[in-house]
Structures are given as C-alpha cells and as structure tokens.
Amino acid sequence: MVIESGTPRRLGLPAPESQLRFDTELQEIGGGPRRRLLMVDDEPAFELSFYCGTCPFLFRRLEGAREKLSLEGVQERLTGALDDPDDGGVIDAFGTLLPQGEYLPLLLSVEPRLVVPGTEGDYFSGEQVTTWGIDQFWGLPEYPHTPYYRTFETVVDADAHLYEFVVPMVPPTWNERERVEEYVTLMERGTVPTAVAISTLDVCEPAAGMPIDHYQHWGLTHFLLDGHHKLEAAATVGGPVQILSLLALGEGLAGTEDCARLPALRARPRSARASGT
Q: In whole angstroms, what is the distance from residue 68 CA to residue 197 CA?
C-alpha cells in the first residue's frame, strides 16, 4: 500500500562527499562499461542490472556491503509510523548520505517475506528463469549473494509486471537478536515502525525469441539504509512495516514516465503473474 508519495526533490551531496553513490566499472583503456554499481564508502556494495536492458534484472551483494547506515538522530522518530514522507525531517537527515540527484519520496506499507536464494519463492530461480532461462555460461540461475525480502508485486499491463524487493546491506544473520526481539514485541503490541531505503527501478525485457514467457520485468529495489532489525521482525510476526523509499531518478533502467507511474502502480492490489499470460 502507498501511504503517501511526495514530489521529486533534489537531495544529496556531490561526489566524493556522499557515503553512497552510483558508479560504472570500466574495462581496460578503450573498453566499454562493465558493471553498474551501488558504492558505499567508495567500495562496490551491489552490482545492479546491466545497462543493455535485455539482460536479467539483478541486485548482487559484493564485498563492500558490510555495514548498516542508520542515523542516531532520527532513531526515535523511526520507532513508530510516519504520517507523511516529510514527517520529522527524516528525508533531509538521510539526504546527507545520498549522492546528489533527484529523488521521488514514497512512503509505503509492506509485509515482508524473507527469501533465501534457491529456496521456495526466490525470484531469481523462479520468475526470472521462466523468462530468461538459466545463465548460459554458469548453467545456473542468477545468484544475488544475499537473503532478501519480497514485499509486493502487481500487473503493470498485459506485457509487464512489477516485482518489489527489499535488500539488506548486511544479511539478517548479522542482526542483533535482542533488537529483533524488541521489535517483535513492539509489533505484537500494534506498533508499526519505519525503515528507510535508497531505491531504484529497473525495467528489463529479454531479447525477442529467447524466453519461454516474454514480458517486461519492472524491478523496484529498496536498499535498506535503516531498518534491518525491523524488517526481520516484521517477517517473523507476519506484520506490516513502513518503508520510506527515496527513489533515485535517473539511476535506474527506467524512464521518467515509468518512475512517475510507480505511486499508482504501488496503490494497486497485490497480484501474481500467471505464467504465459
């Protein structure tokens, strides 16, 4: 459910001052771009979907994803629900971590389900394989190198489907058990806490003639800055948690019009895609 969407606004710090930034890994001199990356402290933290747009959708954890990015000054405000994206100055606070650019704030309510790659419910060995097949070199599905949360999906149109993911900066096994249990207790009493994420939208579609089930995959990915314990607790109790998503416009594989559709798409009822439809 969309609680409220804001209007695009400019946030962040110029490089190299920001703790987070998007980057492209280059080949040797004269070569073209290689990996598209989300960097943390100038180290590659996640590999993102390749630029061509016909390769499979991807987020893959790398060695640089080893710390959470919580801000002590807003922790108390995030213990409960926000009334709107600008409530309590949270956007401006987290703007100090972001790379300079345009962001669309979205305040969402989600009920996360924890997924371990290769197990039931894994997008990469399920829906993605149905469309792209397995990797021709490795002979395996894409592997994100991290557990992640699935939160929502819905129909975009007859030829496109939206999938939403919440990706922790560190795996849930790194979470402090006592803090997870504290949030479990709060949620069982009716508290709905808030997490914060920097987000991207990638629209990927396979080349003609290769897939079993051909359609566009809209991958909305929320990379958690704050809320690792909250998401695990919500998945444990099967309850809701808010996510303040700061969607980085111009950094995903999606046009301006696609990004502008997200608030309306996120307000639609949850709907799974029937294969081949």
A: 11
Is residue 214 within 8 Å of residue 276, measured between CB atoms?
A: no
* Contact by Cβ (8 Å): 67, 40: yes
276: Cβ–Cβ under 8 A, 6 or more apart, which residues?
212, 213
pLDDT for 159 equals: 93
Summarised one tens digit per residue, pLDDT across range 40-81 is 999 999 999 998 888 999 999 999 999 999 998 899 999 999
Which of 174-186 are b and which e, b meaning 16 or more Cβ less than 10 Å from the residue's Cβ? ebeeeebeebbeb
Which structure tokens are listed for 10? 């400019």
pTM: 0.95
Token code pair at residue 62: 């790398």
The C-alpha angle with vertex 105 and arms to 68 and 273, in degrees rounded to 5, equals 90
